[in-house]
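From the pipeline queue, job 12 of 40. The input is one protein chain; the requested action is below.

Action: predict structure.
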Amino acid sequence: MFDFEAISRAMSGQTVLCVGDLMLDEFVYGEVSRISPEAPAPVIAVRRSEINIGGAGNVARNIASLGGRCIFVGLIGEDAAGTVLTEALAKEAGIETVLVRDAARPTTRKVRFVSEQFSTHMLRSDWELAAPAAAAVEQQLIDAILPRLAQADIVLLSDYAKGVLTARVIRNVIDAARQAGKRVIVDPKSANLAIYRGATVLTPNRKEFAEATRSRADSQDSIAQAAPDAMYLADCEAMLVTQGERGMTLVTRDGGSIHVPALPVKVRDVSGAGDTVAAALALALAGGADWEGALRIASAAAAVAVGKTGTAIVRSAELRRRILPHASLAAEEKIVAAGGDIDAYLEEWRRQDLRIGFTNGCFDILHPGHVKVLTAARSTCDRLIVGLNSDASVKRLKGEGRPVQNERARAEVLAALEAVDLVAIFEENTPIELITKVRPSVLVKGGDYTREQVVGHEIVEAAGGEVVLVEILPGHSTTSLVARAREGQA
């Protein structure tokens, strides 16, 4: 089960050894209102500029901002850009930086000119030497990396093909990591995936994967078909292909395939989105998440990143809001009366390829046990529907004197919770008709039930969904709360 709260806590205690190509990212923002009289080129009136740590350095920053600790090893030149990066990294909390200097190459620097009124990149200027590091520099990198493996929970190689991750460096790091029992994530650049052999998972984007496999890679099926040969070549456990607005698809060596859709977001800048995915994936896996849970965390982190301008970092609180969003609707707008129409909600969510979850109950007096089940239920899905027994239904099930609160009051309390996306009231004794209509991907109940006792489990499992049982908190029961309250009144 995907328990975001538990994974989030675990992520904050993980150490990631990150090795890759460091860059200085500069963004120049302004307005374009005329064409130069000297040449047919737009003139940007500069309003402001920003300097960020980019490339693999952005991966390191995201690891730290998500609550992890990063040991970062990179390469810079003997120049002003290298000094700027050194000083900037020294100010970053949560990052232990080890930089090798190479006087024979410039520090990689990219300057982007951005039109603010059109939110578009107009021009990018690059200073770089995209060539493998010399043998002596390679050895310095290896000597810096290997002694620090023991401190890491997981290893991340961020390859931008600027010279740090040579074949020799890659081989030494992966072999040493495997010998030490450490998993290795690689964000690859080379189309020759064999140089990364032995890594745990590779995370190419769709274009990189298509070039490496000479496939179209334009659908989940085509990715799943091309991935096994690529995984055999790379001797890896899994291949994760990121596809921008199409989401991300992971194929495992045992033939399994998981697709996580992209979360709806207004895209402002895709710079560094892959860095964010790699950082979140590494921390989630190190924190104990399974493949699907790690993908959902990585997808949510990417959605936060592309909604920002520049080379952005994602913080734990932002990730939590994206996975467990605050209600965008007023509580009363999240309530559907018995017999009401929920089709519009279902159609919109299915159109967005969102994972729909369902749980149900009377929720007469909301207590911490209920909150735990609802939060855990929301962590398994993108949208959570809560089926709520009507007053008449509760009376039939619980007897005279129940419910203590009427259905409207119970529905409004549930709808006010951030974990709940929709409350659907039903008149029947069980929610079987509602489950049949919703066809949820995941059906959640408290652990005091067995799978066979969960109403609707046959329907959900027959459609390829799953039943999740959440461990309940001992000592919390609505019936006992009502009894104690009435004893106090006697």
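Job complete. The chain has 17 helices and 19 strands.
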